Amino acid sequence: MTEAATIEVEVTAIDQVTPLIKHFRLAPVDGGTLPAFSGGSHIIVVMHGAARAHRNPYSVLSPPNRLDAYEIGVRRMEESRGGSHFMHDSVRVGSRLQIAHPVNLFGLDKIARKHVLIAGGIGITPFLAMLEDLYGGPVPYELHYSVRSPEHAAFLVRLRRREGGRVHLYCDSEQQAIDFEALLGNQPLGTHVYVCGPGGMISRVAAVAKDCGWPDSHIHWEQFSAPPVGDAFEVFLARSRISVHVPPDQSLLESIEAAGVEVPYLCRGGVCGFCQTRVLEVDGELLHNDHFLSEAERASGKTIMPCVSRARCRSLLLDL
Ligand code: FES
What we know:
Strands 1, 2, 3, 4, 5, 6 and 7 form a 7-stranded antiparallel beta sheet that branches. Strand 11, helix 5 and strand 12 form a beta-alpha-beta unit. The protein contains 7 helices and 19 strands. 18% of the residues lie in helices and 32% in strands. The chain is of the alpha/beta class. The protein has 3 domains: 102 residues, Beta Barrel (Elongation Factor Tu (Ef-tu), domain 3), CATH 2.40.30.10; 109 residues, Nucleotide-binding domain of ferredoxin-NADP reductase (FNR) module (Rossmann fold); 86 residues, Ubiquitin-like (UB roll) (Roll), CATH 3.10.20.
């Protein structure tokens, strides 16, 4: 994915939908329509801040049959490296942004006999578009939505108005929790489960589903990790023959891009595998934060996903 492949959009509406989540409508600047997408797709939003560009993935939550604009929901992250704060504090109606074409790494299974959707907090966003694909179709589905308290339940009115009893809400503040064993232990054969939310919720759903005998192919999850902050280090790009400084609050991928070297990417969240890069040498430890590499690949020390992973070292030599 290169910057040339981006589309310029204008922010045409912003709503504060919960104390932490803002809802943005992004329309093409030249009118017309945006590329088609399916429920579960995400886009990368490129934000040009004063000091640096941020490129963050956000699920498209608008109906897939409406291509005059995409809608996204952005949660203000306490530990933001800048992207979510930029969206909340600097983006106004009329602002222009670059977005990448939508990509779906979290699509609905076409031959599932039932769909069980499980959302935690901002993890509701991909399901809003998926529900549009499911609504009125022949395959049964239900949504289980967990939030910290009722005012944090984004888009609940919209969901309940149309989906009614298919939406089950659980509020931590009311001591309500999803009983994963009961939910996943009692589903018809051919059911697929989809989970998007905090890492702990995803791990728990995957573990319970496996204990209940669900095949891996029926368990779907999406979690884009934000690149964590860490110690600064130097990276040398062997083929490009340049050194790049990676500061504490910038990812390895962002630092390499800022130096003018392109690395392929799709998700920028450690999920898709597109940015996988060969490590030629490291005088310390690789800090893997992705959800893509196997334990054996991590242990080999020969590969890294620069979108979310970094190194604790003085220098790292990459095959770029
Ligand atoms: S861009 Fe998807 S794993 Fe890095």
